[in-house]
Amino acid sequence: MNITLNTQTALTGDLIIPVVQTDTLAGQLVNLARKLGLSAAVLQRDFDADAKEVLAVYGPNEQKTYLLGLGANPQEMDWLRVFRKFFFDQKSKLPVQLSIDLTAFDGNAIEGVVLGVRGGDYDLKLYQTDKAEGPVFFSDAGKLTLQVTTEQQTVAHEALIRAEAISQTQRQMLDLMNAPASHKNPQTLADWTVASGAQYGYTVTILDKAELERQKLGALLSVSQGSDVPPVLIIAEYIPEGIDNPRKVGLVGKGVTFDTGGVSIKSSASMHLMKSDMGGAAAVLGTVEVAAKLKLPIHIIGIVPATENSTDGRSTKPGDVVTAYSGKTIEVIDTDAEGRVILADGLGYMVRNYQPDVLIDLATLTGNVIAALGYHAAGMFTQNDDLAAQLTQAANQTGEHVWRLPLWDVYREDIKSDVADLKNYSGKPIAGAISAAKFLEVFSEKHPAWAHLDIAGMAFADTEFGSQKNATGFGIRLLIAYLQMVVSKTRE
Length: 492
Known about the structure:
The chain is of the alpha/beta class. The protein is built from 14 helices and 20 strands.
């Protein structure tokens, strides 16, 4: 399906008109009724513009028009969700040509609209053999026209390019996250990154098991011991052309392609969802690809320690002591707290080999952050107030929300070990997300601009795509917005 902008008055196919719920809604509907040749009383009686509300009407020329409610004060995420829900629900009924009238809105609304439209075509039935033929609107013949004003055109064009870049990458990340362990392992992530780097012009280095052993990434190796599938460390580096001394941002993402919990094995009730334990990796790899596609003038290094966490006679056992890449020793109290262990090597490798100006890690790390924030925000941990403010601003812009939680030194007691430099789990039923962040802080090696995002409640969610939790691609839009913010500040 092709998406184009149009500043002309003639529109083709069915029409969608988004409507904001305001105090002047009655007047808006009078104007719309006049434009569509309909009764204002009918529109006012049947349409309240609630978020995701749809009213289909036919005008005198038999053109079908959908009034699509946005609710009150819609933000970017609201636009995305409203349009994604509409296109997911209606896609089998839509004609080959469709138009959306956005002349009453800011050109920046385009990004949320396009992300929603593209998202509405997502198909979770990855391995079903009896799938019906796809809807005609989302075929190569499909055409979507976005009606904008001449004044909106420049901003709308930039938003369209950005949205298309993000949506294509995010869709691939959804497929990777939703894929089961029978169709995905650490090498799968490595292969995807190599192919992406070749296509979009960034460098990819893969450290295999032998190289991990040679360079002594003992924390990552310890988590992988119980699996027949070898671990890898994925390094993706995008360096913009023609930019002298660009700001350098390091991103580290947890890449556990399946998590049994190891010897500290999880219950069976939700273990099948642990194919999603690579949400941090998806955010990092997706962000590097999008940044390369958009040619952002910023140096980005993405590092993903990737492994399975399985269990057999070789598995790391509770009480074992392992040595991380940095040389720090870790007492493994709980093998199901494996994410922070592999991130220890990811962070250490980043700091010692790349010295980024900013260091951010993302991980589906703790159930405790879900207990604190539910499924509406990621936990953010940083000692840097400026970085916290920038990430919060980017999160508020995209609707991928974060909430800052404390990193006070009093929590160091929770990771104090009797036999090693630190332990990977406090053993307490409280403050688990904070103690995990304090653990990671050690391996950031006092980096002055480090932040940890615990995205456990955000990377997998209930959506219209399926009957159980599935991937969201959380973090890509947030990080791209943050990187664009960094670029803007650098130019000032």
